[in-house]
Amino acid sequence: MGSACVIRGEIPAEEFALYEGLSSLPGVEFEVERIVETGEEAAMPLVWVRGGDHETVADAFENDPSVREIELLSAFDDEQLYRMEWVADVDLVLQMLTNSEATITDAYGTDGRWHLRVLYPDRESLSKTTEFRDEEGLTFDITAIRELEGEPAGRYGLTKEQFEALEAALEAGYYEVPRDVDQNELAEELGISHQALSERLRRATGALVEDALLVGAVPDHDA
Fold it and tell me: In whole angstroms, what is the distance from residue 51 CA to residue 46 CA?
């Protein structure tokens, strides 16, 4: 069956939910916290909206035919959390959640495009999505694929050496305030040079930030 994999891909807003919202609110960011499949033709996400005032965002949602049952859960200045149903142009996402048994770990929309990060149980499941995309004439531009081999390092886009350096640093108190150990002591413990340790920690931190925060970012540089 093969190992699980994480893919990053992009969908143009006009082929996905909240197209009217995205097109009428330039610069506003949409971040999906969770997507739940609620039937054959609908999905129910929790969506953070950032960068727009509540009244303007609410008006955009009311004029968007792809959503219904909109409920404001919380609001903080220019940030709001909504629960809603997506009822149009979500066939690809429903296919991911059902037939491909995938997990959408991130979905982020702004300026006319949605960026998704999706965890697939194996390559065959990913193939089901790409076949469905092609058959239905949909757009899903895959920008990066990472096999999740060598757990737990592979799951987070780290090399084995980077993971071991981070683990040792954490256990030794390197990230405490104040630090319990400096880089020279930690490098000696690992049996590597100070320069090698510094490089591993820097690259590892960059990989974690990119993997965790930058949905749709460039592929991993230190695979």
Answer: 17
